[in-house]
Structure prediction request, 532 residues.
Amino acid sequence: MTQGQAGPELPAVAALPGLLTAIHDDLADAPLVLDAPYTRDAEVLRTRVLTQIDAHLLPRAGGRNIPVVAVLGGSTGAGKSTLMNSMLGTEVSEAGVLRPTTREAVLVHHPETSLAHVPLADRTVTRVHPGVPEGLALIDAPDLDSYDEANRKAAAELLEAADLWLFVTTAARYGDAIPWTNLRLAHGRGLQVAIVFNRVPVRILTEVRADLMARLTEAGLGEVPMFVIPDIGPHEGLLPDDDVAELRDWLHLATRGEQGRGIIARTTRGAWGALRENLTELSRSYVRQANALEALGTTADSISSAIAVDLTTALRSGSAAVGAPLTRWLTAASSGGALADLLTDDLDSVKAGFGGRRVARRNAAASALGKDIHAAIHTVLADAIHDVATQIAEHWREAGVGAEVLLADVPETTAADAAARAERILLAWGAELDALVADHVRPDVVDAPATAQLLAAAVGGVRGAARVVSTLLGSGLIEQGREVLAHMCSEAITQTARPYHLALGDSAAQSRSVVTGLRLRLGELGRYLDAA
Prediction:
C-alpha cells in the first residue's frame, strides 16, 4: 500500500469519530472499583477497549492514510529481534544471546512511509530501512510474558493497534498459556495472524508441527499462514537468508497494494464487531458493579440506622441509670444523704446550712452522680460507635463482591477511637446542659454545675433525680436534654458510617450512567455495523 492510497472504505458516517470518542470518554471516566473476579476481568477488557479505540479504530475512522501495522510478538526468547534483523539483512533491533533484550518496541519503516498517524508510534524507537515495503510499519514488540509489567502492557497495546500479528514462537515455547490467550483474543476481534515457528530442530519438526497445527485448528486458527524457521544452534548475528526468505517475501506480498488494504479492512471489520461484543459485556459488568455498590451502601445504612435506633431507645428507656448511677442516687437520697432534702415540693424550705455546707454537700453528691451517669452513657455510646464500624466492615467483607479494596481507604475505628469520640460527644452534651440550666439555677440549693449534673442523671433515667429536676427546673428541660442527647448520639453513628459512604463515592451512579451511555452508543454502533 503506497502513501497515496486511501484506507479501507467504510460507510460514510460523519459522526463515527464522535461516537468512538464518546464511548472512550464514558469508559475512561468510570473504572471498575470493586475487586471481584468479574471486575478484574472487566477492567482488563475496559483497558483493551480503550486501547483498541485509541490505537486502531479512531485513527482509521478518521479516514487517514495509515500504513499496515505488523507486529512481531510472542514469548520471551522466541527470537523476534533476530528474525526482524535477518529479514532486513541488518541489525535494526538489538538481539540477545543469553537472554532476551527487547525492552522497548522498535518500529521500522520505509523512508517514504509517513508515521504521522500510525497509532502508538510515539511509544516506539523508530528506524528507517529501505528493505521494509512502502506502506508497512513493522514493529518488534516486547515479550507478551515479560517479567516487567510495563513491557507486558506495551506488548498488549501494540497488538490492539496492529493489523497483522506475526506470532513468533519456538518448539520449546509454543504451548505457553499467555501467548495462546492473546491469540484467541486477537482472533476474536478479527486481527490477521501468521505463525512463525522459530528454532525448530529438524528431528522433531514433523511431530511438533502437527501438534501446533492441532492447537491452531482447535482455536479456530487452522487456516492461518505458518512459516517454519529451522534451528541452527547457538549463534550470534543474522539467520541464513534462505531460512527467512519465504517469510520476508510473503510479508512483502501480503502488505502492499490491494493486499495491504484487504488486511486493514478485514482487521478493522473484525475490530468493529468485537467492539460491539465487548461493550455489551462491559455493560453487564457495570450493571453488576452498580448493584453491588448500591447493596453495600444499603448495608451500611441499615446497620447504622439499626444501631442508632437501639442506642436512642436504650437511652430513652433509662438503661444507663442501671448499676452505679442508681446505687449512688439511693445512697445520696436516703435518710441523712446529701440529696435527701431535695425530695420536696417546697424548695424554699431547703436550707443552705451554716456557711453553705449543705449546698457544698449537695454539689459534691450531684457531681458524683453526674460522673456516674456520664460514664454509663459513655460506655453505651462508645460500644455503639465501635459496633457500627465493625459490623459494616464485616458485612462488606462477607458480601463477596470485592469490597476489601474499598475498605482499604476507610480508617479503622478502634475501641480507643470510639471511646475518644464518645468522650467528645458527652463533653459537648454537657455544655448543652449547662446552657439549658443557666437561667434556672437556685444557688442557695445547688450551684450551676451540680444542677446540670442532676439534669444529666434525670435524662439518663434516674427517676429520683428526674423528680428533683422537675421541681427545680420544670419537666420540660428533661425532655430537651434527652432530645439533645439522642440527636448527638444519632449523629455520632451517622458520622461513623460516613467514611464507608465516602469510599463508595458516586461509583454506583457513575456505573449506571455508563450503562445508559453504552446502551445508547450500542444502538448507534449497531446501525453503523448493519450499514457496513
Q: What stands out?
A: The two ends are 22 Å apart (CA to CA). The longest helix spans residues 257-316. DSSP finds 16 helices and seven strands in the chain.
